[in-house]
Write a structure and sequence with these properties.
Blueprint lengths: L5 E10 L3 H12 L4 E4 L7 H6 L7 E2 L3 H6 L5 H10 L2 H10 L4 E3 L4 E4 L5 H13 L3 E3 L3 E5 L5 E4 L5 E10 L16 H6 L4 E7 L3 E2 L6 H5 L3 E9 L2 E9 L3 E3 L1 H5 L1 H10 L3 E6 L6 H8 L8 H9 L3 H11 L7 H9 L1 E5 L1 E2 L7 E6 L16 E3 L13 H21 L6
Parallel strand pairs: 1-2, 1-9, 2-6, 9-19
Antiparallel strand pairs: 3-5, 4-5, 7-8, 8-9, 10-18, 11-14, 11-17, 12-13, 12-15, 13-14, 15-16
Helix pairs in contact: 1-15, 4-15, 11-14
Bound molecules: flavin-adenine dinucleotide.
Length: 413
């Protein structure tokens, strides 16, 4: 290891080889710039690959107006960016890399292979053909007095001289995949306003009794409707050692997180039989039970799976009511007390990051001319369903156009 600073030179330096950074690099290379992509990890796009494990949900097929509404408070800010590189553009981009797509029953769009690895392979090959260079195992630490990005590497410090820089350093979830928010203090020291990172699309904590965990941890609660405050989500949840996770929980995670910021607990309500009206359920539960055990009867009359019956028992903390009306009401509105949010280590994404006011309409930092930012490191959040990747791709594209615009503005550069 040497203390001499090695200097690299490129037109454009992109730091962060996730989807946002790679999209920016691709766009800038196509515009004729020499591009160097630096990343702290030994391989690019680790989180993108992980996203492909459970099925890479690239984007969503719903109408653009509804799509944009999913960004909640950030929708006004992100609308022009998403319209500029919209779900159809992302689908066509995927096709051009040789990966057909399909629309799942929920309207979500996936590559046919369902995975990220073939797509990433084809993408990296294309970037290579366009001359994009990579500097892996390079951890960005700061800018020097001339605005050159500084890195630590196993071989010693490296400095990169570039005409413009795109930061695409990700949020702070799943830190072991690379994005661990270690840049926050650095950018704050340069006067950039950053909202602290919080888990988003994360699991929730429940103080389960010792009865339920050994038998049901890891089991899905299928076809359930969850209600938290005014928010309703339908789908599947998974019971874990420490609480609940899964798509329907993630859909309510922002609302749950907000409630837990001002209260130590909050109640989630489960409808275990959302397709069966309460009246029918009562009639069925009034049928004679005969010699059947209560579990067998509940399964037969109400169609409850063992995990549903266990959740009813858990909520009662003792024997279940015998009365059909009381039982039906519990099945339709089972309260589960949540005691916290699972941490950033396993959250699908994060909320928080560089605040909207810190960037101009081209995603350039107002306090640092020539430095652009994109992707999950910015302060927006979205539910699962393809909205996260779509926004990262669209912002990578927008930041790249911003760089080109800035380089072509004589007074600016
Ligand atoms: C388990 C899981 C499943 C997911 N599934 C989906 C899905 O199906 N659909 C969907 O839309 N979204 C999904 N997501 C979310 C999606 O993967 C992210 O929103 C997306 O990867 C963020 O892209 P990004 O480019 O902003 O950041 P990242 O992908 O996090 O990339 C940031 C890069 O910056 C690098 N970096 C960070 N700090 C430094 C530093 N100091 N120096 C150098 N390099 C640094 C990191 O190593 C990393 O490579 C999933 C996420 C997870 C964890």
């Amino acid at each position: 290891m040497s203390d001499t600073i090695k200097t690299l030179e490129t037109d454009i330096l992109v730091i962060g080889a996730g989807p946002a950074g790679l999209k920016a690099a691709e766009t800038l290379a196509a515009a004729g710039q020499s591009v160097l992509v630096a990343d702290a990890m030994p391989n690019p796009a680790r989180k993108f690959l992980m996203a492909g494990r459970g099925g890479l949900n690239l984007t969503h097929s719903e109408a653009l107006f509804d799509f944009i509404a999913r960004y909640g408070e950030a929708r006004g800010w992100l609308a022009p960016t998403i319209r500029q590189f919209d779900p159809q553009d992302l689908i066509e981009w995927c096709h051009a890399l040789g990966e057909e797509t399909f629309v799942g029953s929920s309207g979500r769009v996936f590559p046919k292979s369902f995975k990220a690895s073939p797509l990433l392979r084809a993408w990296l090959k294309r970037l290579n053909e366009k001359g994009v260079a990579f500097a892996l195992r390079h951890r960005f630490t700061d800018f020097d007095a001339d605005g050159q990005a500084q890195f630590t590497t196993a071989e010693g410090p490296v400095s990169v001289k570039a005409k413009a820089i795109v930061l695409a350093l990700g949020g702070a979830s799943w830190p072991k995949l690379g994005s661990r928010g270690d840049w926050v203090a650095t950018l704050q020291a340069h006067g950039i306003a950053i909202r602290p990172f919080l888990p988003s699309n994360m699991g929730v904590l429940v103080n389960w009794s010792d009865h339920i965990v050994p038998r049901f941890a890891g089991e899905p609660i299928k076809r359930v409707t969850l209600t938290h405050g005014k928010q309703v989500a339908r789908g599947e949840a998974v019971l874990t050692q420490t609480g609940l996770e899964g798509g329907a929980i993630y859909a309510l995670s922002a609302s749950i997180r907000t409630a837990l910021q001002t209260s130590p607990t909050t109640v989630l309500t489960l409808d275990l039989r959302p397709d069966m009206p309460e009246k029918i359920l009562i009639e069925r539960l009034q049928q004679p039970r005969g010699k059947a055990s209560q579990s067998t009867f509940l399964h037969r009359a109400a169609g409850l799976a063992p995990i549903g019956i266990a959740l009813l028992r858990e909520a009662c903390g003792g024997p279940l009511p015998q009365d059909a009306l009381a039982l039906a009401r519990m099945i339709k509105a089972l309260p589960v007390t949540l005691t916290g949010c699972a941490g950033l280590e396993r959250a699908i994404s994060s909320a928080g990051g560089i605040m909207r006011d810190a960037v101009d309409e081209h995603f350039m930092l107002k306090a640092m001319a020539g430095v652009f930012v994109c992707g999950e490191m910015l302060d927006w959040e979205a539910p699962t369903g393809g909205y996260l990747l779509q926004a990262c791709f669209a912002q990578g594209y927008a930041a790249a156009l911003g760089v080109t615009h800035w380089l072509n503005t004589p007074s600016a550069s």
